[in-house]
Predict the structure.
Amino acid sequence: MADLPSPGALASLQKIYALWRQWEKRFSLACQPGCAACCTQAVLATRLETEYLAQAFPAETTAILAQVSDRQWPAPRLTTNQFAALCLARSPEPDDPYQPQSAPCLFLDARGRCQVYPARPLACRVMASTRPCHEAALPPEIFTSIGSVFMQAVEHLDGRQWGSLWSLLPLVLAPVEAKGAAARDNAGPLRPCHPLPGLLLSNREWQQAKEVIQELLGLISGQPSHQQEKP
């Protein structure tokens, strides 16, 4: 397994984040600074996203290294693309004991604001509501589906490791020490990334978001966006 991202992968990730920002501007969201109802420790990410986060915010990520290095962080048995492949094949999903961590995210400050907001992973970016979360969160129609496709694309782009952000941070920030700990703990709950098996979108959703999805697929394939069709 490669330790370094492929050439241009971090630049492509930045473009994917920018594309998501363009997409979410289409919606009227209730999310405001300090609204942290969905900001828990259940953050799943790729190694690529973790590297981008650590490069953008070295002080903030290093500050929590001791907190995250001495424990096992749970992750689902299936990556986003593994789950998509099962759904597309109409295969049953295996039992999974995974329980998301509900404690507040370690990157929140005393006011409930994210200290690494500009570089947060897609799992954070796709969480949104059209009304205040204390009234019960209500994601916009199609928002969640397109968010899942973006996460599929980033997993495909990375091609290395996927799991809890808190398991990935030690690998990125202190790789020698983390590899030793991983060996002692049987590698922990990190999963290998899987290639894009197809998109978990209905034909209606594809038509509604065709332009943005074509551009997204172009970013991970290197082909012009107008040549992309639904996988």
